[in-house]
């Protein structure tokens, strides 16, 4: 009887260990990473993910209607609600002609707000594949959410409601 | 210890009392009597271990299990997760299939097949960099108005569409080469990058147009067929040239049976 109880306890403890092992592994990860993209002048810049700040890397393009009318405005609202010390957003543009994307953003009719300062350019899709993987179709909008240690929490394909209460509670849980 | 494991049970209803002491029913050891005494009339000896110990027991495992089940349930019901699984998003060339043929002298037809739930932008369809011919006119069929959630009313193509090119072949040229640009989106709210395909069409007089068959579209987006001759070309998406490879015959059989379409959840108009 005693043996049965201890065996059951051992079984439960091992089940708990298996369930919590991803968290333990996550704790053991490094605190973040960097990826390379271009700035408006076409120079390479390193963008930080994690390192103590929750990070969203969102990929968009000028030819992507949902990106222009839903994703970028939604991310801009997030930037307004969360200070940059708590949430970092990289809005990475994937237009093949990065100069065209710069001209697009500088057009007087285009007003995305504060998110325009977070725009980087990735015409070769290198950052896209580095972050979202090589295995799937490269579609837009697409984004990834990282915790403070640079661990990927979620990926989002298609338009996403960034200001929904569900997403905010997810964000608050990790900030 | 012995008393806890071996005890007389007078209170619990035994199998015998439930069955009303059947005469031919043997006991649990298969015997009807021990030493000449009918043991079916004796109180039952319960040799099983007691299920409830005589001391109070805390059961933390129950709460732990509940917590684990609750955690897993919440993880499963999390509504903030990705609505679209990237594994369910087929590549462009599987959704937007085309085939270019020299349908008549001085005319090239491009037959598009667009899967259900996807559409091509009319203003994104264009021909560039013609080699071996001069493009006289590009005829695009009337498009359907699409009420875009973001852009309002735009013109798109769904289902099957044939765009035709009126050309002046360069004398002595055996094939026409051009860049075909296209871009499309899905109704679920995602878009594919603009595609640029290098298309080669063998010039031939009197070649009849034949609509594409599924098994011929293995090299989708970059194949052309004239007079039974298959041409393959490079696919260049967002600056990433990729050689188009043909599949082995057994794979052609699978593709022909729509296996890949079923895998990607694609349906086609009229099928």
**Distance N to C terminus of chain A:** 47 Å
Major beta sheet summary of chain B: 5 strands, antiparallel
Mean pLDDT of chain B: 66
Q: Name the strands of the widest sheet of chain B in spatial order.
A: 10-11-7-14-15
Structural class of chain B: alpha+beta
Brief write-up:
With 175 residues, chain A is an alpha/beta fold. Chain A has five helices and seven strands, in the order αβββαβαβαββα. The longest helix of chain A is centred in the first third of the chain and has 27 residues, at 2-28.
Structure notes:
The complex is a heterodimer of chains A (175) and B (271). Chain A is α/β, with parallel strands linked by helices and 175 residues long. Chain A has five helices and seven strands. Chain A has helices at residues 2-28, 65-81, 98-106, 126-132, 165-174; strands at residues 32-38, 44-50, 54-60, 87-93, 119-121, 142-146, 152-157. A five-stranded mixed β-sheet of chain A has the order 5-4-3-6-7, sandwiched between helices. A two-stranded antiparallel sheet of chain A has the order 1-2. Chain A is elongated and about 75 Å long. Chain A starts with a helix and ends with a helix. Chain B starts with a helix and ends in a 7-residue tail after the last helix. In chain B, strands 10-11-7-14-15 form a five-stranded antiparallel β-sheet, with no helix packed on it. In chain B, strands 8-13-16-19-20 form a five-stranded antiparallel β-sheet, with no helix packed on it. The model of chain B is unreliable at 8-25, 45-50, 73-82 and 205-255 (pLDDT under 50). Chain B is elongated and about 80 Å long. The interface between A and B is large, with 43 and 40 residues.
């Amino acid at each position: 009887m005693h043996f049965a109880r201890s065996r059951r306890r051992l079984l439960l403890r091992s089940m708990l260990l298996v369930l919590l092992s991803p968290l333990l592994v996550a704790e053991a990860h490094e605190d973040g990473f960097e990826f390379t993209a271009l700035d408006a002048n076409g120079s390479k810049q390193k963008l930080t993910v994690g390192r103590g700040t929750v990070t969203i890397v969102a990929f968009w393009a000028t030819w992507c209607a949902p990106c222009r009318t839903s994703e970028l405005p939604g991310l801009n609202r997030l930037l307004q609600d969360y200070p940059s010390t708590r949430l970092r957003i990289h809005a990475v543009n994937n237009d093949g002609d990065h100069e065209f994307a710069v001209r697009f953003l500088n057009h007087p009719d285009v007003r995305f707000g504060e998110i325009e300062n977070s725009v980087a350019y990735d015409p070769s899709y290198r950052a896209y594949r580095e972050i979202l993987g090589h295995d799937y179709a490269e579609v837009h909008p697409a984004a990834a959410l990282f915790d403070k240690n640079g661990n990927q929490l979620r990926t989002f394909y298609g338009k996403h409601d960034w200001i929904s209460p569900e997403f905010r509670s997810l964000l608050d849980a990790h900030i | 210890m012995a008393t806890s494991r071996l005890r007389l049970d007078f209170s619990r209803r035994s199998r015998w009392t439930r069955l009303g002491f059947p005469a031919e029913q043997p006991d649990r050891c298969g015997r009807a009597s021990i030493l000449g005494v009918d043991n079916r009339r004796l109180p039952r000896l319960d040799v099983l271990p007691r299920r409830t110990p005589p001391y109070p027991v805390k059961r933390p495992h129950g709460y732990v299990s509940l917590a684990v089940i609750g955690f897993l349930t919440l993880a499963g019901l999390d509504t903030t997760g990705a609505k679209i699984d990237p594994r369910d998003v087929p590549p462009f060339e599987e959704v937007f299939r085309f085939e270019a043929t020299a349908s008549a002298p001085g005319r090239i037809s491009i037959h598009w097949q667009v899967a259900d739930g996807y559409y091509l932008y009319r203003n994104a369809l264009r021909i560039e960099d013609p080699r071996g011919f001069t493009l006289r006119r590009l005829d695009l069929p009337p498009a359907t108005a699409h009420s875009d959630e973001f852009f309002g009313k735009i013109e798109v193509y769904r289902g099957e569409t044939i765009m035709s090119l009126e050309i002046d072949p360069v004398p002595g040229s055996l094939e026409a080469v051009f860049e075909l640009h296209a871009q499309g989106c899905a109704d679920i709210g995602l878009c594919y990058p603009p595609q640029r395909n290098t298309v080669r069409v063998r010039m031939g007089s009197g070649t009849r147009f034949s609509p594409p068959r599924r098994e011929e579209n293995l090299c989708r987006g970059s194949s052309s067929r004239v007079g039974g001759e298959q041409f393959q070309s490079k696919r260049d998406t967002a600056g990433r040239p990729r050689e188009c490879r043909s599949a082995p015959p057994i794979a052609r059989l699978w593709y022909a049976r729509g296996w890949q379409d079923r895998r990607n959840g694609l349906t086609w108009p009229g099928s």
